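Example 3.2
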Amino acid sequence: MVGRDRLDAVVVRVTLSPGQALAAGVWDRDTGEERTCRVWFCERADASPDRLPLLEAGVILRLRETLHRRDDTAAQLCPCRRSRIAGQRPTRVEGEWRGERRELSAVLTTTHREHTVSGVLARKGPLHRLFTAAQRSFLDECADCPVDIDALTVLGPVAVRRWPRLAWSAAELNVERWQATALAGGSLDFVELSRRVDRQGAEIAQLALESALRRRGIDPREDDGAGTDIRHVLAFLARGRRAPRQS
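Structure, written as C-alpha cells:
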C-alpha cells in the first residue's frame, strides 16, 4: 500500500554523451556484468515529436527484453500525485531527481517469459497481453488520462547496454548506454548514470556525483546533445522509428 509518506528511494540521474562518459573515465575500468536489452515504449497513435499525449499526462509504458533474462513491462506514473496513488500497491514509489528537477514516480512492473514481448509484437497481438490486470487497474484508477492499451502504438526498439553495479568515483552506479538509428536518418546515443539512495542522503549523493563529474571537466547540467530525459527518447522514436505494428 502507498501510505502518505512512502518513498522507497530517490534515484539521482545524470545524462552524458558517450564522449563525456569516456572523458569522465566511466569505461576505463572493469565494467562488471553487462546486460543487453531492447526497450520499446507505448504511446497514442497520434503521437508526434511535438506531441506525446501519454507522456504529457505523466504515463510511461515500457516493454523490455534482456538477453538471457525474463522480459518485463512497466506501467509508470511520473510525475504522479500521492492523492492519486493512495491505497495502491505499486512496485516502487521513488523520487526522480535530474538536476534541479525533482518528481515523484510510481511504477508497477511485471515479468514474462523470455521473448514474450517480441513475440506479441511480431504477431501484432493485443498489447494487453503484456500488461497484467493489476497494471491495467493501476492505470485506470491512478492515471490522469484514460489509457486504452490495445489502441496504442509501439515505438522502438532502442538498444540498451546496462552495467547495474559499476564502481566509479567511490560510488556504485547504474550505467546505461541507449542507442538507436532512425530509418529516415539521425541517431540516438547517450549514457545515463544513476544512483538509487535513501531520501535522507539524496542531496549529498547528487552533489557528490555532479562534483565528481566536474572534477573531470564534465558539467552535468550541460546537455551536449545527449538528451536529458525520456521525452528526448520518445520524440526521437516518434520522428520515424516505430515497431512494425498497426494500431
